[in-house]
Amino acid sequence: MVRSEPPLNPKLALAVGIAAVSTASILIRFSESNPLIIAGYRMAFASLLMSILSVGSLNQIRGLSDAERAVLILSGLSLAVHFGTWTASLEYTSVAASTVIVDSSPIFVVLLSYLVLGEGVNTREAAGIAISFLGASIIAMGHLDMSSNLFGDFLALVGSISLAVYLVAGRRLRGKLDLAPYTASVYGISGIILLLAASAAGIPLAGYPLREWTIFLALALIPSGLGHNSYNYALKYLKASVVSVSILGEPIGASILAAILLRELPRVTTVIGGALVLGGIYAAVTSQKGVPNGNR
Fold this sequence. Notes:
Layout: H1 10-22, H2 24-30, H3 35-53, H4 66-89, H5 95-102, H6 105-116, H7 123-141, H8 147-173, H9 179-200, H10 210-235, H11 240-245, H12 249-261, H13 268-285
Helix pairs in contact: 1-10, 1-12, 2-10, 3-4, 3-9, 3-10, 4-8, 4-9, 5-8, 5-12, 5-13, 6-8, 7-13
């Protein structure tokens, strides 16, 4: 039997995915809107996009039990916290520090899987976790003289932990739901929560200039749509561990774009600490069969 060739080289798709996801932090920096508005409309538009792609399978949501619907809501809430805090972090700290810290989520996936799901942690995973925490500490120490940057680092850390909660919660649901209806649902829940939070805080939901709406839509189409759909395409042909580790390309790509477009060069401590964080993630993720990739 002759095996058909994929319509698009999966390695090329992976490269496109990394490049697309790397634009998220830059687009956020270009926006002048409140982080809750940026994240809320990004999720709302991404949900609309995924709903269009899942027209024939959205009825899968009806087959969920009450407990599974509760997990779906928890997943959407966790994603809202992730995007709300990470988007806000970019107002306070560098693109390099923010993306390195938020992309440490696979480490927290390993920890949560151990604590919540009872999945064991091997020696290589434990070493990777320790190395990543050392790297994050070095990044934070480099910002001790700048309280705003340290606060941004903290927000990115909250974004990383909440993303891990989203990924672990989603493991149960992905056995019942296809990718498109699942992401359409959680993106929609996340978007609603973020926009309700913005409204409760007295932030207007309308009246933004065309430039801002263009950025919101670009965030939904490029990093969320093109980026993560490229990852999911590559998953059909490449090992899950290979695709998962590809998230390590985002901080590098985002830092390069920040240097070119924002003239923002990372500190030496961010480079050293970032290398340790990414090295620790690589060690932990490649010791498993696969950890879900991120969602920026």
